[in-house]
């Protein structure tokens, strides 16, 4: 894809190339004192992927709010470009559902490993399947963007739109705190107040998805217990 995306001020776009994924390129930049706001991206025939480098000034458990606002940003970006009948929901902690099918996800990496540590950097990655790969097996729970009425959505336009909406929600978080982020995310949450199974850090958890706490942790309830699943449990990416 030859078209070069245009990003808003505060974001510098960098094509990741073929030798490293955007997340790998962002990780390499982070450990070499890369600048916050650098957004690495790659357009492939069947996938859009990107990763943005951030420099939080809050402890890791608070900085993980960036994951939620990145998800909201994607939902807003796709909503602005796709036909109005296309529905987008967020599957905790970092998945997307488009018209009910799993369709892409976020990932996260950080320099910090404990929840009260302020990370030097944090990276949020985005992966969105566009077309089904030829060797991809059939899974009724999984879909691709162009199979859901989005064939006219340009991957370049989608990435540009995501970057703009990401900044809008990042600014709102900085001005108003995490409350508006949590409320907006929950308004589009997949299976809220329903029984769910969540896999986090290699373990399955089951219960009724009751909402988020003040740190964005999932509240899972059963008849006799309540469990909080922290967003920091997603930190499986290593740089």
Distinctive features:
239 residues, alpha+beta, BirA Bifunctional Protein, domain 2, SH3 type barrels, four-stranded antiparallel sheet, 26% helix, 28% strand, globular, aa-tRNA-synth_II/BPL/LPL
Explain what you see.
This protein has 239 residues and is of the alpha+beta class. The chain contains 5 helices and 11 strands; from the N terminus they run E-H-E-E-H-H-E-E-E-E-H-H-E-E-E-E. The longest helix has 22 residues. The model has no long low-confidence stretch (mean pLDDT 94). Pfam families: BPL_LplA_LipB_2. InterPro entries: aa-tRNA-synth_II/BPL/LPL, BPL_LPL_catalytic. This is DUF4444 domain-containing protein.
Give the gist of this structure.
This protein is of the alpha+beta class.
Helix/strand/pairing category: alpha+beta
What is the domain total for the residues? 2
Q: Report the top-level CATH class of the largest domain.
A: Alpha Beta
The global form is: globular
Q: Which radius of gyration do the C-alpha atoms yield?
A: 17 Å
Query: Low-confidence segments, ≥5 residues, pLDDT <50?
Result: none
Helix % is 25-40%
Q: What's the story with the biggest beta sheet?
A: 7 strands, mixed
Identify the CATH homologous superfamily of the largest domain: Bira Bifunctional Protein, Domain 2
Please count the helical segments. Answer: 5
Tell me the strand order in the biggest sheet.
Answer: 1-2-3-7-6-5-4
In what range is the share of β-strand residues? Answer: 25-35%
